[in-house]
Structure formats: structure tokens, C-alpha cells
Design goal:
mainly alpha, 62% helix, 0% strand, CMD-like, Carboxymuconolactone decarboxylase family protein, 8 helices
Length: 159
């Protein structure tokens, strides 16, 4: 479904801010907080974010690369995310982040003790909670943008 955006309005700003200001502004705050307040490393952050973008099919999420202090992941990083199981471009943390994102989105009931044991070997409980909140935000908001066709109309701001 495509939302009718008035002429001259920013699609994201209109849908998230004007259409449902009581919800959208709070959602936008969470979305921005994931980028502005993360303590996760760039590679695991992007591995999880891009895996969700692939699952959601959100066009601008797939094109976006998070930048930190002038650094972004390499151009072919998204190919490594696609092949997260076998790529040699990932360390254990990035591989687990991609796996967690995929399982969270597609099989959250299948997150078993074996998986959590592997996560606990490489992530603190605080990092797991942060990664979970980030994945949840990307899943919800990237999917919302894709479902409403906003991903074809907008460009994400730089953080």
C-alpha cells in the first residue's frame, strides 16, 4: 500500500510525524537512538542491520551504510551478510549478529539454549539486550517503510 504524501512533504516526516504524531514521534526517537547511542561495534551492528534489511526488502535500508567517525563497512559487506554462514569476512561477533537478526525475524521460537550459549560467549547481557532492541526497531520500522512504499521515496538522514 502506498500512503498519499502531500506535495512538498517529506514522506518519512509526514507519515511518522504528522499522520500519527503520538506514536510516530516516539518511534522515530527509538529509531534514532539505535544509531546515536549504540555501544556495539560497527561490523556487528551493520551485520545485524543489513540482515534485517535483506529480510524486510527495504530499499533504502539496503542502500544505507552506517557511518561512525568517518568509517563505514566496505562496499561488499552486504555480500558477506548474505553469506553470513560461510563468509571469512566476519569474526564470531559479526556472524552471530547476522544469525541472531535472521533468527529473530524468521524463527524467534527457535532461539534455543545452544544459541544463547554461543551468544553469551561473545556478548555481554547488556550487549544482547541492546542488539535485540536494535533488531526489533529495524524489523518494525524497515518493514513499515517497505509495506507503505516509503523506502522508494526517501533517503535516510546521516547519523
Amino acid at each position: 500500500m502506498n500512503i498519499d504524501i502531500p506535495e512538498g512533504k517529506d514522506p518519512i516526516g509526514y507519515v511518522w510525524g504528522e499522520m500519527v504524531p503520538g506514536i510516530g514521534v516516539a518511534a522515530a526517537g527509538l529509531s534514532l537512538a539505535v544509531y546515536q547511542h549504540t555501544t556495539l561495534g560497527l561490523r556487528e551492528f551493520e551485520a545485524a542491520r543489513l540482515r534485517i534489511a535483506q529480510i524486510n526488502g527495504c530499499m533504502f535500508c539496503l542502500d544505507w551504510r552506517t557511518e561512525r567517525d568517518g568509517v563505514k563497512v566496505e562496499d561488499d559487506f552486504i555480500d558477506a551478510v548474505t553469506q553470513w554462514r560461510t563468509t571469512d569476512a566476519f569474526d564470531d561477533r559479526a556472524r552471530l549478529a547476522a544469525e541472531y537478526a535472521e533468527r529473530y525475524a524468521l524463527d524467534h521460537h527457535g532461539l534455543d539454549e545452544e544459541f544463547w550459549s554461543r551468544m553469551a560467549e561473545h556478548y555481554s547481557q547488556v550487549e544482547i539486550v541492546e542488539l535485540t532492541m536494535s533488531i526489533g526497531a529495524w524489523l518494525a520500522f524497515g518493514r513499515l517503510n517497505r509495506v507503505f512504499g516509503l523506502d522508494a521515496m526517501c533517503v535516510l538522514p546521516k547519523f
